[in-house]
Design a protein that fits this description.
Blueprint lengths: L1 H10 L17 E2 L4 E2 H18 L12 H10 L5 H14 L3 H6 L2 H8 L5 H19 L7 H6 L5 H11 L9 H9 L8 H8 L8 H14 L22
Antiparallel strand pairs: 1-2
Bound molecules: iron/sulfur cluster.
Iron/sulfur cluster (SF4) binds next to loops.
Length: about 240
Amino acid sequence: MKTIAMVKKVTAIPSRRPRGGSKASGPKKRGPGRESEEALRARALEIVRRLYRAYPDARCALQHRSALELLVATILSAQCTDARVNLVTRELFQKYRGAEDYAKAPLPELEEAIRSTGFFRAKAKSIKSCCQEICERHGGQVPSTLEELTRLRGVGRKTANVILGNAFGVPGIVVDTHVKRLAGRLGLTRNQDPVKIEFDLMPVIPRKDWTYFSHALIFHGRRICKARKPDCPKCPLAEVCPSRV
Ligand code: SF4
């Protein structure tokens, strides 16, 4: 009986468009429709469950062996495919082993090494200055807190959460373009700003699942819920998605 009640609860999807009108009292409403906090949490849990079933192996696609390598790869991944980044870092990580190597590298040399990832001048500058700060302030070791990471030049919350979740095992929600799009379609946020989206997701997704959830949504966004044409008929989340067509 409990299972049936839960399925009923999580499949009671709110209408995509908020309805105006009644100011009746009752459970606190949020989300894109008239969904209660309780119903939203139950639906979010069901989304996580379904993602685990659909993508049990979802994980960071950037190859790395250390927090520093992941930091460099994440900076390179802006506006570039993971496959291209992995191709470039295979050689890059052979040549540059520690933060000091990047900090001391002549900028033109670094630019040349990462040229094919695009925006190579800005990326080279970010990597170099970020590594200089790591050497000056953290003895050459990538720091392991959100505060310290986001204080590094060129490191925002997204990059910091990637590092925390995948190099230090500290749960973090990474809001990239896929997570942003899917969180909206799934009715988990009404915001467009990545930081606000992160704060909308944090209370409804169990903390232990934050890192996995980000990877799984990215997998799902690449395979099924694509930007231009979401494949709703094939979607394992369709029953709990207010945007299904
Ligand atoms: S049902 Fe459609 S819109 Fe909703 S998550 Fe699946 S593919 Fe995306």
